[in-house]
Design a protein that fits this description.
heterodimer, A: about 100 residues, B: about 325 residues, 10 helices, 8 strands, about 15% strand
């Protein structure tokens, strides 16, 4: 193995590590943050669709019931997030990485 | 005049009689007419002494006239069943139960009846092709007013829902790293598609009601009925749906001059107070009084209906719908 090769492999390893670190410390948390924001937007959508799930009677749920066959995943995730979430502050707090 | 005519008023004032009479009047003038009853009491069947159902049937003895009775309960059930069918096609068995609960709740809300009625209303207007005129015998004032306010409210709401949905899908697409499949995709999203359909539906409904519908209110010569009519006129105007005319129904007939028994004295008194009230309607209410119909001694059916039809001073010629 020549010196040039060793330098080459050293650089490759370093690059991989750096990319991994960058991904783990910067990119992924950032995308995760966007994803959580998307989930929050979806929660707001579902709440606007089914206010009577919270005891608020609304004439819209008759119409939004038509969406139910298409939002299986959303509905399940929504319920899970609702059970899971302690407070809105905490949920938002999780979205900050220091 | 507009092709769609809505007859409203307080419960029991004679909406059905007036709508059927007007239907007969139009039909006699050669206008292909459909009378639609949305009243759960289903009195159109009683007026024509013939059972009507969910599909238009021609009225025996009157040419050019069909009638249809909408049963809101059946409409709600049909809506529910339709969603259930799609549910079992799309959704995994584990989630069906969960979603079913939500579904049933949505169909038991107080608004479900009205929504179902409204859907059918609009459906009839949209497919009114074979008819030149459709006369709607509506349910009592309060619920009808809410029904007619529905399109505007729902249009705004559906817009809001679509915006929220687009927002979340957009974020999900942005959150997909590299070649990862995003959790939701904007292209061909079935939820947005449905919402768009509904949006168009409400747009049509609002447009048809504002451009192609004429509203008439039936009233009786008593204070309660007058007050409610006054409020209904204001409410309808607030919704941008002008009232075209008022029909005074159940007026007491005056006795002959030479009669002076107890009954005749009572009637004379009664006619006097009613005259004052009708005067009040004529002077202080904006829409014109298009008919004054006297109390009949028996149910308004058959030839009596033709009589009443003759007393209605309402145009029969129908223009084609302008809002499609």
């Amino acid at each position: 193995m020549t010196l040039a090769d060793r330098i080459e492999s050293y650089r490759a390893t370093l690059e991989e590590w750096l990319r991994g670190l960058y991904h783990g410390m910067i990119t992924h948390p950032a995308y995760e943050k966007i994803e959580k924001e998307a989930e929050d937007a979806e929660d707001a959508f579902l709440l606007a669709c089914f206010p009577d799930a919270f005891g608020i009677p609304s004439p819209v749920s008759y119409y939004t019931a038509e969406l139910l066959p298409y939002i299986e995943d959303e509905f399940e995730a929504w319920e899970r997030r609702l059970w899971d979430r302690d407070s809105y502050m905490e949920r938002k707090g999780q979205q900050y990485h220091f | 005049m507009e092709p769609f005519v809505f007859v409203g008023g307080k419960g029991g004032v004679g909406k059905t009689t007036v709508s059927c009479a007007y239907g007969v009047k139009c039909a006699n003038a050669g206008v292909d007419t459909l009378v639609v009853s949305t009243d759960p009491a289903h009195s159109v069947s009683d007026v024509f002494d013939q059972q009507f159902g969910d599909v238009p049937e021609s009225v025996a003895g009157v040419d050019n006239l069909d009638a249809l009775e909408i049963d809101p309960e059946e409409e709600v059930t049909a809506h529910l069943d339709d969603i259930r069918r799609r549910l079992s096609d799309q959704v995994s068995a584990a989630m069906v139960n969960e979603i079913n609960q939500q579904l049933e709740m949505a169909h038991q809300t107080p608004g479900a009846y009205e929504s179902a009625l409204f859907d059918r209303f609009v459906d009839v207007m949209r497919n009114s092709d074979p008819y030149d005129r459709v006369v709607f015998d509506t349910a009592p004032t309060g619920s009808t007013l809410r029904l007619l306010a529905l399109p505007e409210f729902m249009e705004g709401w559906v817009n809001r829902l679509m915006h929220k949905r687009e927002q979340s899908i957009d974020l999900f697409e942005k959150a997909a790293i590299g070649n990862a499949e995003p959790r939701r995709v904007m292209d061909g999203d079935p939820v947005l598609e449905r919402l768009q359909e509904r949006k168009e539906f409400f747009e049509y409904a609002g447009g048809a009601l504002r451009n192609d519908a004429a509203f008439f209110l039936v009233l009786n010569p008593d204070t309660l009925s007058l007050n409610e009519t006054e409020r209904a006129i204001a409410d309808l105007e607030g919704e941008d749906l002008g009232v075209r005319g008022l029909v005074a129904n159940k007026l007491a007939p005056s006795p002959d001059e030479d009669e002076n028994g107890r009954g005749a004295r009572y009637l004379r008194d009664r006619v006097e107070t009613e005259r004052e009230r009708v005067e009040r309607v004529r002077e202080t209410f904006d829409p014109p009084l298009v008919a004054e119909i006297e109390f009949r001694t028996r149910e308004v059916q058959g030839d009596l209906l033709e009589d009443v039809a003759g007393e209605l001073d309402v145009e029969v010629r129908a223009e084609p719908p302008t809002f499609v």
